[in-house]
Amino acid sequence: IARRRAYGERLHAGLKGLPGLQPQGFVAGALPSYWFYMCRVDQNVLGPREEFCKALVAEGLNPTAALLERPCHLWDVFTKKQGFGGTAFPFCLAPHIEYKAGLCPHAEAIVKDNLVFPVNEFFTEEDARQTVEGVRKVARHFAGQKHAVRGRQLI
Q1: Is the dihedral of CA 23, 56, 116, 129 positive or negative?
Q2: Of 29, 46, 69, 130, whose Cβ has the fewest other Cβ atoms within 10 Å?
Q3: pTM of the model
Q4: Each residue's pLDDT tens digit in the chain (155 positions)?
């Protein structure tokens, strides 16, 4: 875990302050294990996340443009209240709760604008340096262009 943490902290330090990127936050006192490293893309600054991700891949990096296709509360098991053994349990205990879009706006926004980088205990300091350099290069290029993605802002 120490090697994953060192790599993640290197990414975190190197990506802070870039225009249009919001690195993940942490609870005070937390020691993350960095299963992955996530940041959010302000598409008004950097343009469409998918295009930004493609440019990172062209730089030799391996980000993923979405951790999940939809937030967990919108999975069928919740929206259709598919309980244990074909029953409605435990959903029947609180039938007034509806799992639908808008229930968790922060989670829904993150799904639409997150960018994820892998973290591995075998990644080196050189890997971290190249990742930070590549992201910085692409972010600066994209931030220099005009983008208008209406109705989208980081929460």
Answers
A1: negative
A2: 29
A3: 0.82
A4: 999 999 999 999 999 999 999 998 889 999 999 999 999 999 999 999 999 999 999 999 999 987 788 999 999 999 999 998 989 999 999 999 999 999 999 999 999 999 999 999 999 999 999 999 999 999 999 998 765 444 444 44
What sign does the dihedral 55-58-64-69 (CA atoms) show? positive
The token pair that represents 135 in the structure block = 């992201």
What number of other Cβ atoms are within 10 A of residue 53's Cβ? Answer: 20
Produce one character per residue of 29-42: b if its CB has 16 or more CB atoms within 10 Å, e if not: eeebebeebbbbbb
Tell me the CA distances in angstroms from 151 to 12, 48, 107, one per residue in order.
28, 13, 16
